[in-house]
Amino acid sequence: MLSRDWAQRKNSYDFVVVGSGYGGAITAARISTANLDPKPSVCILERGREWEPGSFPDTPEGIAGEVRSDINPLGLHEFLTYRDISLWKGNGLGGTSLVNANVAIIPDPEVFHLTGWPKSLNHASLMPHYLSARATLDATPHHAPLSFQRFRR
Predict the structure, then answer these.
(1) HEC string for the chain
(2) For residue 18, which phi and psi values (nearest 5 degrees)?
(3) Percent of the chain with pLDDT over 90
(4) By C-alpha distance, which of 29, 9, 8, 24 is closest to 96?
(5) Which of 15, 24, 61, 111 is the most buried (most CB within 10 A)?
(6) Cβ of 96: how many Cβ atoms within 10 Å?
(7) The model's pTM
(8) What is the distance between the alpha carbons of residues 49 and 87, in angstroms, rounded to a whole number?
(9) What is the pLDDT of residues 36-75, one digit of tens each?
(10) How far apart are CA 119 and CA 28, in angstroms?
(11) In the prediction, which pLDDT does 1 show?
């Protein structure tokens, strides 16, 4: 297990990173591996819990029981709806990667033809960043993606 009891924390840190998802984890890793002397101390705060192997909810009932709410503030799933967008977020050590199965998909070029995308953000301009992320994460395409239930229509 990676998390520590709150009582075991230090009194101060050089850096505090809020969130342990993609952005927080990368930020903390870059700070902690930077060529600095002395090495900085880094604290990562996450509002969710750490999931022990084998305890992750994988049934509809288990998922429903882990929705974040006032009575379940450590719930794994958080659903937010706004006028123009709805979000499904993950709360826990690992952030939203807990609920999106750590999928690293490069969008089809057609996605950027949808209304609302700034002209400067397009498939070609973002491709170097997608490829960099893919290389950094060592992500590889699944050999049979259409076999996943999420892809079935």
Answers:
(1) CCCCCHHHCCCCCCEEEECCCHHHHHHHHHHHHCCCCCCCCEEEECCCCCCCCCCCCCCHHHHHCCECCCCCCCCCEEEEECCCCEEEEECCCCHHHHCCCCCCCCCCHHHHHCCCCCCCCCHHHHHHHHHHHHHHHCCCCCCCHHHCHHHCC
(2) -100, 115
(3) 37
(4) 24
(5) 24
(6) 18
(7) 0.66
(8) 20
(9) 999 999 999 998 889 887 888 888 899 899 999 999 999 9
(10) 32
(11) 66
74 CB burial (10 A radius; 0-12, 13-18, 19+)? exposed
Sign of the alpha-carbon dihedral angle for 101, 80, 87, 18? negative
| β-strand pairing of 77-81 with 86-90 | antiparallel
Residue ranges for the chain with pLDDT beneath 70:
1, 101-102, 149-153
Here the tokens at position 106 are 């490069």
Q: Is residue 19 a contact partner of residue 42, using CB atoms and an 8 Å limit? A: no
Going 24 to 108 to 130 to 101, the CA torsion angle's sign is: positive
